[in-house]
TrEMBL record:
Keywords: Cell membrane, Membrane, Transmembrane, Transmembrane helix, Transport. Residues 28-254 form the ABC transmembrane type-2 domain. Belongs to the ABC-2 integral membrane protein family. Pfam families: ABC2_membrane (PF01061). It comes from Acetobacterium bakii. This is Transport permease protein. The keyword Transport applies.
């Protein structure tokens, strides 16, 4: 068992290093991922912010959690793309001819997604600070926010793995992230759900993005989180488990 664990972690570190080198050689991917969310943040704060009744004097504080989720949803499309290109280029077959743990090939892409999206989130928070974002949250609350964002990234990354392993074309790989990004617009990310029509409100209040956004917003504003954090964790963990199962099935089927 110790030998298996040793080989698993050493193989995974090699695959992680390979994926990270691809990221550092094309830093424009991280820049591209951050530009759109920052653009949304600038647009909603400085153009639409005055007309939106969010119940707070600082709209950046209200908006930031949703922007972070949009950034992550945008970023995971690159994970799907890199997996797709590896499949098309026959890289997986070459790796399988070597004495390595097969699942580490996927885990290398997954961990790279966590790191690259973490960098994007940090850049967006820095821009938000320049725009006036302020948080009274303590260190523990920030750790909780980081944990929720990491779980959300992990959940979406395994969904991206399914797309990368199953898609037939590059366009198909990229298109799957759009519905996920669109979920943020039908949630409490930009406006309170109370202002929505009944049917839209019912959907918004019972989809994962709203619970995650509300939990992060409460943590950053040092307010009671209530059940939102448990609902958010349940969504993230549930999606991760289901997506992981289907991703591994798609992986075994393709290779």
């Amino acid at each position: 068992m110790e030998t298996v664990k040793k080989h698993f972690f050493s193989d995974m570190s090699v695959m992680l290093g390979r994926s990270m080198r691809h990221i550092f050689r094309s830093v424009d991917t991280i820049i591209t991922v951050t530009i759109m969310p920052i653009g949304f943040m600038l647009l909603f704060v400085y153009v639409f912010g005055g007309a939106i009744q969010s119940g707070t004097d600082n709209y950046v504080n209200y908006l930031l959690p949703g922007i972070l989720l949009i950034a992550i949803a945008s970023g995971i499309s690159y994970t799907a793309y890199r997996l797709f290109m590896d499949m098309q280029g026959g890289i997986f077959e070459r790796f399988h001819s070597m004495p390595i743990t097969r699942s580490t090939i996927l885990w290398g892409h997954v961990l790279t997604s966590l790191i690259s999206n973490g960098i994007s989130v940090a850049v967006i928070i820095l821009v938000a600070l320049i725009m006036g974002f302020r948080s009274p949250a303590g260190l523990l609350a920030w750790f909780a926010v980081a944990g929720i964002l990491a779980l959300f990234t992990l959940a979406l990354t395994w969904i991206a793995a399914i797309a990368g392993l199953s898609a037939k074309t590059v366009d198909g790989v990229s298109a799957f992230s759009y519905p996920i990004i669109f979920l943020a617009f039908i949630s409490s990310a930009f406006v309170p759900t109370e202002s929505m029509p009944p049917a839209v409100r019912a959907f918004a209040e019972n989809q994962p993005v709203t619970a995650i956004v509300d939990a992060i917003r409460a943590l950053l504003s040092d307010q009671p989180v209530g059940n939102d954090i448990w609902i958010a964790l349940a969504w993230c963990i549930g999606i991760t488990i289901v997506a992981y199962i289907f991703a591994m099935r798609a992986y075994k089927k393709r290779v």
